[in-house]
Automatic annotation (TrEMBL):
This is Succinyl-CoA synthetase subunit beta. Pfam families: ATP-grasp_2, Ligase_CoA. PANTHER family: SUCCINATE--COA LIGASE [GDP-FORMING] SUBUNIT BETA, MITOCHONDRIAL (PTHR11815:SF10), SUCCINYL-COA SYNTHETASE BETA CHAIN (PTHR11815). GO terms for biological process: succinyl-CoA metabolic process; tricarboxylic acid cycle. Keywords: ATP-binding, Ligase, Magnesium, Metal-binding, Nucleotide-binding.
């Protein structure tokens, strides 16, 4: 789950990273009683969890006297379609230089990896693309270490000031403490008053949300949330075929087969083991509820799951889209008979249901 800038900054601050003085406001007028704490100029920052806010007009550097107006503007100014619920107002830092630093997990080496660039700021993507391998340095290190070893830190920093080193180590502390997948500071700035994280990004591993005391994953769509509440594994994709399976293996191979026949899944849902009538009904309705879904493949293997229960669930769901089913195993005959009686299509093999669905989705 992505945290907002002000939330990430709070965590960074707690891990010893210097953060500009600032306040979080929920309405423009709230800002009035905080303005005394600021000197002449402030930075007014829209709190939406998308990158490139600066370029999209979500960061306003202004005189203190105009800050309330700037906040008023940002509260109704969508950035990549998102309206902020909060705005962060900070002292304007006297920036000398902007650096980029992030820590993530390198899936290939299975180690934490630091990315560092001597030219950070809003054009980092451009730097990464055109700057050559030296522009964005990558250094991995052992997850058994609690700090970045000195020789690696020198490699990361190059000619950048040494005082960035402790910030990077503290960023690693924050990264570990918050079970993060990504901790990023862009820009990490040097000023006459020292180093500061002028921006902050933190993505928490969804599997660690409970440990982190986060009860609801804000990044989920309403359907994804409903799936989570029902204990379904559910993922949304880009195509138009809905997929329901039981067990990760069967669900994944159904997806593979769709890909194999040049189809595209809109979503997939694993109902898990022993799903009864009610659960199957919920699963079918949930998958069908995504507007992109034109046709649904139900591929279920009856073990503890009983095919007749599955059939009843499909029928109960009573959805508009065409459901093509493949059932095999416990009470298969009863299930098939029920579906046939109610006019549902069944095919005997995975290949056949998938081919049929791909054909219908393309029509
Ligand atoms: P982003 O566009 O969403 O990454 O937003 P940032 O928080 O990184 O802000 C974008 C740019 O605004 C930064 O790269 C800075 O150049 C500038 N900026 C942000 N905060 C300050 C500040 O306190 N002082 C100054 N002078 N510039 C700032
Ligand atoms: Mn930034």
């Amino acid at each position: 789950m992505k945290l907002l800038e002000f939330e990430a900054k709070e965590i960074f601050r707690n891990n010893g990273i210097p953060i500009p003085e600032g306040v979080v406001i929920k309405s423009p007028d709230e800002l009035r009683r905080h303005l005394n704490g600021f000197t002449d100029e402030v930075v007014v920052k829209s709190q939406v969890d998308v990158g490139g806010r600066g370029k999209a007009g979500g960061i306003i550097v202004t005189q203190k006297a105009d800050a309330v107006e700037a906040a008023r503007h940002l509260f109704s100014f969508p950035i990549k379609g998102l309206i902020p619920k909060a705005i962060l107002v900070e002292e304007k830092l006297p920036i000398d230089h902007e650096y980029y630093v992030s820590i993530s997990i390198d899936r290939t080496t299975r180690q934490p990896m630091i990315l560092f660039a001597e030219t950070g700021g809003v054009d980092i993507e451009e730097t990464a693309r055109t700057g050559g391998p030296e522009a964005l340095r990558r250094v991995g290190f052992s997850p058994l270490l609690s700090e970045v070893p000195g020789f690696l830190m020198r490699q990361i920093l190059g000619t950048a000031p040494k005082e960035l080193g402790p910030v990077i180590n503290n960023l690693y502390k924050a990264f570990c403490a918050s079970d993060a997948l990504l901790a990023e500071i862009n820009p990490l700035v040097t000023t006459s008053r020292g180093v500061f994280a002028a921006d902050a990004k933190l993505i928490i591993d969804d599997n660690a949300l409970i440990r982190q005391g986060i009860t609801a994953n804000r990044d989920l769509t309403p359907r994804e949330r409903e799936a989570e509440e029902n204990g379904f594994s559910y993922v949304e994709l880009e195509g138009s075929i809905g997929v329901i399976g039981n067990g990760a293996g069967l669900t994944m191979s159904t997806l593979d087969l769709i890909q194999h026949y040049d189809g595209k899944a809109a979503n997939f849902l694993d109902v898990g083991g022993g799903a009864g009538r009610e659960r199957v009904m919920k699963a079918v309705r949930l998958v069908a509820g995504m507007p992109d879904v034109k046709v649904i493949v139900v591929n279920l293997l009856g073990g503890i799951t009983r095919c007749d229960e599955v059939a009843k669930g499909i029928i109960d769901a009573g959805i508009d889209q065409h459901v093509i089913t493949r059932l095999a195993g416990t009470n298969e005959e009863e299930g098939k008979a029920l579906l046939a009686k109610n006019g549902y299509q069944m095919l005997d093999t995975m290949e056949d249901v998938v081919k049929q669905a791909v054909k219908e989705a393309a029509a």
